[in-house]
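Anyone up for a design puzzle?
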C-alpha cells in the first residue's frame, strides 16, 4: 500500500509544525496569564494591609492563587498534549497516512477555559463590594 501522496507533501509537514507552534503559543499565554492572576491576589493582599480594619476586603487573595495555578497547569497540559499529538501525527505522515484535523483537543481547552472564566466571574461578583 503506497499511502496517500498528499502525506509526502512538505507543505503538510510544515502545516503540522505551524499547528504545534500555535499550541505552544497558547500554552505560554495560559501560563503567563495564570502567573498574572496569581500575583494579582498578592497585590490585593498588600492593598488590604494598607486599609483600615473597618473597610471590607474586595476579594479573598487565596482564590486568585488557585485560579492562577490552575491556568499555569492548564498551559503545561496544553504543551504536553500538543507535543504528543505532533509526534503521533508526524509518525502517521511518515507512514504515508493522511492526517485529518481532530478539533477535540481545541474544544476541550476552550471548555476548560470557559469554566475557569465562569468561576472567575462568579468569584468577582460574589466578592463585589456593594
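Challenge accepted. My sequence:
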Amino acid at each position: 500500500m503506497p499511502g496517500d501522496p498528499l502525506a509526502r507533501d512538505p507543505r503538510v509537514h510544515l502545516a503540522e509544525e505551524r499547528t504545534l507552534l500555535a499550541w505552544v503559543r497558547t500554552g505560554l499565554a495560559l501560563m503567563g496569564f495564570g502567573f498574572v492572576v496569581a500575583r494579582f491576589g498578592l497585590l490585593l493582599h498588600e492593598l488590604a494591609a494598607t486599609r483600615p480594619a473597618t473597610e471590607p476586603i474586595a476579594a479573598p487573595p487565596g482564590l486568585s492563587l488557585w485560579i492562577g495555578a490552575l491556568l499555569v497547569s492548564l498551559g503545561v497540559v496544553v504543551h504536553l498534549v500538543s507535543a504528543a499529538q505532533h509526534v503521533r501525527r508526524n509518525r502517521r505522515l511518515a507512514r504515508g497516512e493522511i492526517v485529518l484535523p481532530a478539533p477535540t483537543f481545541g474544544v476541550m481547552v476552550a471548555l476548560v477555559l470557559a469554566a475557569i472564566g465562569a468561576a472567575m466571574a462568579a468569584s468577582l461578583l460574589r466578592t463585589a463590594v456593594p
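A detail worth pointing out: The CA atoms of residues 62 and 113 lie 19 Å apart.
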